[in-house]
Structure formats: structure tokens, C-alpha cells
Design brief:
The chain is mainly α. The chain has 14 helices and no strands.
Length: 296
């Protein structure tokens, strides 16, 4: 089992390690043992979930988190159709990443059911079916553009991935604090530990790819500045993203954490020294949504 302090120390150390090649990063990642093994999941005290209260306002957020994790198999398929996905080191990472992310969704779904919020047996297929045609068309267009640009777009993919993994982990940390549910905390600590390893892979590959040439930096910076949106927005309804951000990051202290643990780490990447887009996107949406939630 992993405590919150162990989670923080593991997450911090990943930013103080450097690699010289993509293979070095993959070798490190493959050397990390999985946290959410079948044995670990079986040992979670599921029978105690109902012993602790769970505020109903967190249910939509947990469902949102579950669905974001579940849709990673869709993102995986999209990436496989690009030069990024055909990179031997990135594709090897993505195979394991996809399995781990889907497991996160399954564990969150089980928690919801154990807490008394029953979900449909076919919830996974329903989540995938509900992705809009507009989003599917957009991703097809993006894949076409990516293939035209070629391998120089890999830096953009990896930077996006790093931002999404870091912000997702902060969402889980906020949920731990706000919900204050011992069993959920245990589950989220395990998920965060795996997300931290994902972050390290994305962040370090992004760093290596960005430093190769200025053109890759310019593409990545342009795409982040003009097209970045909080994780899940687009594939899931915007109102769900707003509710999740308003609930988790509706106060300034929480947004300060986003600045420290996401934006300032992205600023360490080549070409991103003064980036503010992440704070603006998450902060703007969270503030507006929080105001609506508090006035409802």
C-alpha cells in the first residue's frame, strides 16, 4: 500500500532524473513494477467502502474520471495511425499505458458500485458510443495533418501527454483531500503512482524531441497555445468537464497547485519557458463553473 507522502516523493523524484535517448526513458519505464496488479486490487478493502460517507457531489466527477481513463484505448488507436505511434519506443510504452489507464477506469467504476451508485454492465461500450461525431471528425483531420508533418509532431504529442497526465494526477489529489474517504484514498494513491510513471515517460520524451530542433518547438507551442483543452474535453461533454473542474479546482489555492505542479514543470521544456495557457484554460473554466455551482 502507498501513502500520500510516498506518492509525493515518487512524483517529485521523476523531475530530477534525466535521459539521453528515448530508449533510456523506455528502459526506465519498463523497470517500474505495476501498482494496480490483480493482487493489489483484490486486497483493497471493498467491504469497507460503505463504512464511510461519500458526498454525492463527487459522483459526477468520479464518473468523469472513469470515462476519461476508459477512452484512452481510443486515443491509443488514434496515435497508432501517426508517425508518433509507429515509433518503436513510444509504441511499446503505449501498449502498457493503455492497459493501465483502462484498469484505472475499471477500479473507479467498481468503487462507485461498492459505494451504492450502480452502473450499467455495458458502461464501457456506452462511454465509447457517446463520443460525438464532431470529435471523431476532428481527430481524423488532426491525424491527417500529423502524418503530413511527420516525426516532428512527436514533440507535440508527448507535450500534450505530459500536460494531461500531470493535470489528471492533480485532479486525483484534489479528490483525495475533498472526499476524505479512506478506501478511495487508497485507490487514488495507487492510480497516482502509475500516472506519475506515465508523466515521466511523456515529459522526458517531450524534452528529448523538443530539443532536437526549433521547428518541433514552434509546432508544439503553437498547438498548445491554440488547441489545448483540459483532459476529457471534446471526447466528453463540455458541461461535464466544467463540473469536474469547478468541483475540484474552484478555489485559488487549488489553482496555485496547478501552476506549481503542471505549468511550472511544462516551462522546463524547451520552447515553453513562459507558457500560461494551462493556467488560463483550467483556471478560467474552474472559476466560471465554481460560480455557477455555488449559486445553484
Amino acid at each position: 500500500r502507498f501513502s500520500a507522502s510516498e506518492d509525493i516523493s515518487f512524483s517529485e523524484v521523476i523531475y530530477h532524473m534525466t535521459f539521453e535517448t528515448n530508449k533510456d526513458v523506455l528502459d526506465w519505464y519498463e523497470g517500474q513494477e505495476r501498482t494496480l496488479t490483480p493482487e493489489y486490487i483484490d486486497a483493497i478493502p471493498w467491504n469497507k467502502v460503505k463504512d464511510y460517507p461519500l458526498d454525492k457531489r463527487f459522483i459526477p466527477v468520479l464518473l468523469y474520471m472513469r470515462d476519461v481513463e476508459t477512452l484512452t484505448d481510443m486515443y491509443h488507436r488514434e496515435l497508432c495511425r501517426t508517425p508518433t505511434g509507429r515509433d518503436p519506443y513510444i509504441s511499446k510504452f503505449m501498449e502498457r499505458w493503455g492497459v493501465e489507464e483502462v484498469t484505472h477506469g475499471e477500479v473507479l467504476n467498481r468503487f462507485l458500485n461498492e459505494a451504492g451508485f450502480e452502473t450499467d454492465d455495458k458502461w464501457q461500450s456506452q462511454v465509447r458510443t457517446n463520443v460525438s461525431n464532431v470529435y471523431n471528425s476532428y481527430t481524423y483531420l488532426l491525424t491527417t495533418i500529423t502524418n503530413f508533418i511527420g516525426k516532428k509532431f512527436t514533440a507535440t504529442h508527448m507535450t500534450f501527454g505530459a500536460i494531461h497526465e500531470m493535470s489528471t494526477a492533480q485532479g486525483y489529489r484534489r479528490m483525495k483531500v475533498l472526499a476524505d474517504h479512506p478506501v478511495l484514498t487508497e485507490i487514488l494513491n495507487a492510480i497516482i503512482r502509475e500516472e506519475a510513471a506515465h508523466t515521466k515517460f511523456y515529459w522526458n520524451i517531450a524534452r528529448l524531441e523538443l530539443r532536437k530542433n526549433e521547428f518541433a518547438q514552434k509546432i508544439a507551442r503553437f498547438v498548445i497555445e491554440h488547441f489545448y483543452a483540459p483532459v476529457g474535453q471534446g471526447s466528453l461533454a463540455k458541461k461535464r468537464t466544467e463540473y469536474a473542474l469547478g468541483t475540484l479546482f474552484g478555489d485559488e489555492d487549488a489553482l496555485d497547485v496547478i501552476d506549481k505542479t503542471v505549468t511550472q514543470r511544462v516551462r522546463q521544456l524547451p520552447g515553453f519557458a513562459d507558457i500560461t495557457k494551462i493556467n488560463e484554460s483550467i483556471g478560467g473554466m474552474a472559476r466560471r463553473a465554481s460560480l455557477r455551482l455555488n449559486s445553484a
